[in-house]
Write a structure and sequence with these properties.
The protein has three domains: 66 residues, no CATH class; 88 residues, no CATH class; 128 residues, Dna Topoisomerase Vi A Subunit, Chain: A, domain 2, CATH 3.40.1360. The protein has eleven helices and twelve strands. A hairpin with a 7-residue loop joins strand 1 and strand 2. The longest helix is centred in the C-terminal third of the chain and has 12 residues.
């Protein structure tokens, strides 16, 4: 390894990282004099001429120092925390939930309306120290809850880009990470999309719902702050194998992650569909559709099972008396949560 390599300040000159990702967000830092070699903050790899798979902590030259995370001004939460009648995502939530539940979700996740596009939403990434790491801005259709697209591309940007903060050092974290400070005893349920996390937090408030923000966000640098927690991950349809493999490696390091395989056992769902989409389609989610059938109630209960409930289910196959015991004595799990049978 050549330890004299220095990083180039001009990240913009390289359009793609060697891992295949676009360098539009400048997450790939090339070495001076090279285009295909450098360090990628997205995949957390350093690419060398002879060994592109070796993990390596970059040696920064005198001209470039490793930077800590930049933070947005917390007053932006207040500034954007209004105009909800013009927020398409909030208007969509009104189709499925009551106003009080929506207001609680707005306060919990600090949902805002930045007005970059008409009807847009900002999802803040807030770390355990309550610092604003990132503000993702997205535009949804208020009737379908789907992302608005133009020429096949979704409307998505960030507070950093909107305000042209060129020196802002972006270090993302899980969406909803700050909630761990308030709910240390709750099981963490992890999904990909911010929209899904918010809707599921209303539907299943007994869990602490967080989102990775993308399928690539299911990685150790994001999950390290919740390493000591029990985690149930719900990948979008089609991502089970990838998340399962990642969870296996993380569990070897002491994580406690269970990847739900419900989607793997179903047929007829499009690739990429998420948990909230399915529950809405089934009529399980929301106060207007309600629980219209016993089939839907059973299905939705199985979608989100705690680790204890999974163990109880297996034990009941050998001795159903345990179900009577739980019912008669109103037994709860170690986190004080109801054991649903």
């Amino acid at each position: 390894m050549n330890r004299n390599l220095e990083f180039d300040r001009n990240r913009k000159r390289v359009k793609y990282c060697p891992c295949g990702r676009s360098n539009r967000n400048q997450r790939f830092v090339p070495f001076k004099g090279y285009e295909n070699y450098g360090y990628c903050h997205s995949c957390e790899k350093t690419f060398f001429e002879k060994n592109t798979e070796k993990h390596y902590i970059p040696q920064y030259g005198k001209s470039i120092k490793p930077l800590g995370a930049s933070y947005h001004d917390k007053r932006l939460i207040v500034r954007y925390g209004r105009n909800y009648i013009e927020n398409n995502f909030i208007q969509y939530l009104k189709l499925h939930f009551n106003i009080s539940s929506i207001k609680e979700a707005i306060l919990k996740y600090c949902i805002g309306t930045p007005k970059h596009w008409k009807g847009d939403t900002v999802f803040w990434q807030i770390d355990r120290q309550n610092n604003l790491r990132h503000g993702k801005i997205m535009l949804y259709d208020q009737n379908t809850g789907k992302r608005v697209k133009k020429n096949g591309r979704a409307y998505i940007t960030s507070v950093r880009s909107m305000n042209k903060l060129e020196d802002f050092n972006l270090k993302q974290c899980l969406f909803g990470l700050h909630l761990i400070n308030e709910s240390k005893n709750k099981l963490i349920a992890l999904v990909e999309g911010e929209k899904t996390a918010i809707m599921m937090s209303i539907f299943k408030p007994e869990y602490t719902w967080m989102a990775t923000g993308s399928k690539q966000g299911f990685k150790e640098s994001y999950l390290e702050p919740i390493k000591d927690c029990d985690i149930v991950a719900f990948p979008d349809n089609g991502e089970y194998c990838d998340w399962k493999n990642r969870a296996f490696l993380l569990n070897q390091k002491g994580y406690k992650i269970k990847v739900d395989d419900w989607f793997e056992k179903q047929e007829g769902f499009e690739k990429g569909v998420d948990l909230a989409d399915v529950l809405i389609e089934m009529g399980d989610i929301g106060h207007k559709k309600g629980y219209n059938s016993n089939h839907n109630r059973i299905t939705s209960t199985k979608l989100v099972q705690t680790i204890v409930e999974t163990k109880v289910k297996k034990m009941a196959l050998r001795n159903r008396a345990i179900l009577t015991l739980i019912t008669e004595f109103d037994l709860i799990d170690q986190n004080g949560m109801e054991i649903r049978i």
